[in-house]
Amino acid sequence: MNKILIPVDGSKNSDMAVKHAVKTYGQDSNASFYLFNVQPTLYRHIGKFLSKQTVNEWHAERATLAATSASTYLKNHGLNFSFSYACGDKGSAIRDEAMRLECGRIVIGTSKKNSLSRLFENSTTARLLEISDIPVEVVTGSTLPALERWGIPALGAGAATALMAVVID
Q1: Where are the domains of the chain?
Q2: Are 54 and 60 spatial neighbours (Cβ–Cβ below 8 Å)?
Q3: 0.85 exceeded by the pTM?
Q4: For the chain, what is the largest distance between any 2 Cα atoms, rounded to a whole number of angstroms?
Q5: Predicted confidence (pLDDT) per residue in 117-145, tens digit
Q6: 3-state DSSP call for residue 152?
Q7: DSSP β-bridge partners for residue 136
Q8: Does domain 2-168 bear CATH number 3.40.50.620?
Q9: Per the CB 3.0–4.6 Å rule, which of 46, 58, 113, 133 could disulfide with 117?
């Protein structure tokens, strides 16, 4: 059986991964699709004020919401799938779930970023590629904004402009 794990978070990039997986493996009658979402662990300070049941319900609600567009897409194409979620480190949780389900591949969506952005961000895709023994297909999403193509992260554009103004003066 061809088991495919698709991490979903409700973004356009994860939706592109679902569409790619359906296009590539949807015709295979042995293909099984598994949608998976990873929720962040709440800080201990927040957890002190909430019951464990409330936290679990909140995680379940957010995970289900994150998988809505992907599950709708799979249903519209008449494909069977299952959905699960976990809390914790995204890369490790995705790898662990793929191993638990004995998946043959992981199809993950990501945005196109330059090397400078990837250096300062905690990339789930990079982490997954580093730790997973299961083949990972990376589906790239939308293109970079013009400033990022030139090596200036969009959020740092203002800081870079201010720095240039100081240097010029």
Answers
A1: 2-168
A2: no
A3: no
A4: 67
A5: 655 567 888 889 899 999 999 998 766 55
A6: coil
A7: 106
A8: yes
A9: 113
